[in-house]
Amino acid sequence: QGQLVESGGGLAPVGGSLRLSCTAFGFAFNSYHMRWYRQAPGKEREWVGTITISGRGTNITDSLKGRFTISRDNANAVMYLQMNNLIPEDTGKYFCTAPTKGIWGQGTQVTVSA
Question: What average pLDDT does this structure show over 40-54?
Answer without folding.
Answer: 97
